[in-house]
Specification:
The strands form 3 sheets. Strands 7, 8, 9, 10, 11, 12, 14, 15, 16 and 18 form a 10-stranded mixed sheet that branches. The chain contains 14 helices and 18 strands. It is elongated. It has helices at 17-28, 30-37, 68-73, 88-99, 109-126, 143-149, 164-176, 180-189, 198-201, 204-218, 237-245, 307-326, 365-375, 403-414; strands spanning 8-13, 41-47, 64-65, 79-82, 104-106, 130-131, 155-161, 228-229, 248-259, 262-273, 285-292, 296-303, 350-351, 353-360, 380-388, 391-398, 401-402, 419-428. By secondary structure, it is an alpha/beta fold. α1 packs across α12 and α5 runs parallel beside α10 (204-218).
């Protein structure tokens, strides 16, 4: 048991997009927060990289420090809030805070998705809370939902649109027929895309978030590097239009499934039937579908990023930590240590596939193309030809087929004289 406290002091590591909004929310909603916790919560110290940097959010200069250790070890700081980003520095600060028995709140998905297991072990050893709602889907309640609200159920699957930038780009390509480059420029102009958007476009951001969700959903340790990942850079508006004609939307999907004793975790573009609950999630919004054995399907959606929504998740975690501190306890929910579990190799995946390719428009070509599919035991469900003169676009859907066989088909098609190109092969989620 710790000493009872009559006010909770917060130390912020970072005062950027999220940190400044956390500070503002704690100040502007101070009365509300105090009413809900029973004692006030005040920011005692804030670590920044550059004290002289102009701040859009005014802050008394005496609160600022450039040494994050000073914030972590300050005796008036009871809760350490890591919103500075990066991995190595943040990891050391978080570990130190936990060693001191201080609850930690973080929004750092990269940190959690690589070192979550170590951090949770340290939190357990110190009986200190580690909260991370802001790491996935900003204020969409996902972490607490998996930890608490659905704790009674066996989770079989999670499917999510976890990256706002790519969802915005795919939505604009679908609705305005913009090219990828045009949609990316629009995302940048609206502040959704970073100067270097690689993390988003290549699916790293979504993979990190999926690793966190899948670890909680399936009670195992999954790091981001174990998630199979493909980005959206090769998708064109024409393929999106063809998919729509067949009744599908194209999304960058993050999928986790607990099946046949192993875990399937992957992030890639996917065709979703238009009636699927995630197909209608447009622009920068995020959404997650959780499939529980007893609960059935539960869908959550909302803004997936941004300072104010993420600050709501972070401050709500601070409130949780403060409530636990107030009753002199340590952590209320200490997650057990998660074992590692086998991951299904992508080559074993067996689902339907969508092909978009160009073929020479002359008699007998269809038969040659179909023969390759047949020889590799990939059965064609439907095939549509869109003639464009000497070359025709061919769009086809397969029945369930093994990924390894689909890759063999693709490689063989690419060597055929009658095939001008295989533009895309996209997995279909039914
Ligand atoms: N932005 C979002 O929408 C969002 C959503 C969910 C989660 N997150 C996560 O939240 C975290 C913060 O993101 P952000 O967008 O707020 O980042 P940001 O705007 O770049 O802010 C980072 C802050 O940390 C400070 N900082 C960096 N290194 C430091 C160091 N070594 N010592 C002390 N202070 C240091 C910076 O100081 P200066 O101000 O002096 O440069 C800045 O105030 C990241 O892990 C991110 O992935 C962000």
């Amino acid at each position: 048991m710790r000493e009872p406290i009559d006010a909770v002091g917060v130390g912020l590591l970072g005062f950027g997009t999220v940190g400044a909004e956390v500070y503002r929310l704690l100040r502007d909603h101070g009365d509300l927060v105090q009413q809900r916790v029973g004692i006030p919560i005040t920011v005692q110290k804030v670590a920044v990289a550059d004290r002289r940097k102009p701040r859009a959010q005014p802050i008394p200069p005496h609160l600022l420090a450039t040494d994050a250790w000073e914030v972590v070890t300050d005796p008036t700081v009871h809760v350490v809030v890591e919103v500075m980003g990066g991995v190595e520095g943040a990891r050391l600060f978080v570990l130190r805070a936990l060693d001191l028995g201080k609850p930690v709140v973080t929004a750092n998905k990269q940190l959690l998705s690589h070192f979550g297991g170590d951090l949770l072990a340290r939190a357990r050893a110190s009986n200190a809370d580690l909260f991370f709602e802001g790491t996935v889907g900003s204020c969409i309640p996902l972490i607490k939902t998996l930890r608490e609200s659905l704790a009674a159920d066996r989770i079989r699957g999670v499917e999510g649109i976890l990256n706002g930038t790519t969802n915005y780009i795919l939505t604009r390509m679908s609705e305005e027929a913009w090219t990828f480059e045009q949609a990316l420029a629009a995302a940048r102009a609206r502040g959704f895309a970073e100067a270097d958007p690689t993390e988003d476009i290549e699916g790293h951001d979504a993979a990190a978030k999926l690793a966190i969700l899948a670890s909680l959903a399936f009670d195992c340790q999954i790091t981001a590097d174990r998630v199979y990942r493909e980005g959206i850079g090769s998708i064109t508006p024409r393929e999106i239009a063809y998919a729509r004609e067949l009744g599908y939307a194209v999304k960058l999907l993050a999928l986790g499934e607990d099946r046949d004793g192993a875990i399937d975790v992957r992030v890639h573009p996917a065709l979703l039937p238009l009636a699927h609950p995630l197909a209608a999630i447009s622009d920068e919004r995020n959404a997650v579908l959780v499939k529980g054995e007893a609960a059935g399907s539960v869908v959550f959606s909302g803004p997936g990023a941004g300072g104010p929504p993420t600050a709501v998740a972070v401050v709500s975690d601070i409130i949780d930590a403060a409530r636990n501190l107030r009753r002199c306890g340590g952590a209320r929910i200490l997650l057990p240590s998660f074992a590692s579990r086998p991951i299904h190799p992508i080559s074993d995946l067996t689902i339907p596939y969508f092909f978009a390719m160009q073929v020479t428009d002359r008699p007998g070509v269809f038969a040659k193309v179909a023969a390759v599919f047949g020889e590799e035991s990939v059965s064609i469900a439907s095939i549509v030809q869109k003639s464009r003169g000497a070359v025709a676009d061919v769009v086809l859907l397969t029945h369930e087929a093994q990924e390894a066989a689909v890759r063999r088909v693709t490689n063989r098609l690419r060597t055929m004289e009658v095939v001008g190109g295989v533009d895309s092969v996209i997995r279909v989620v039914e």
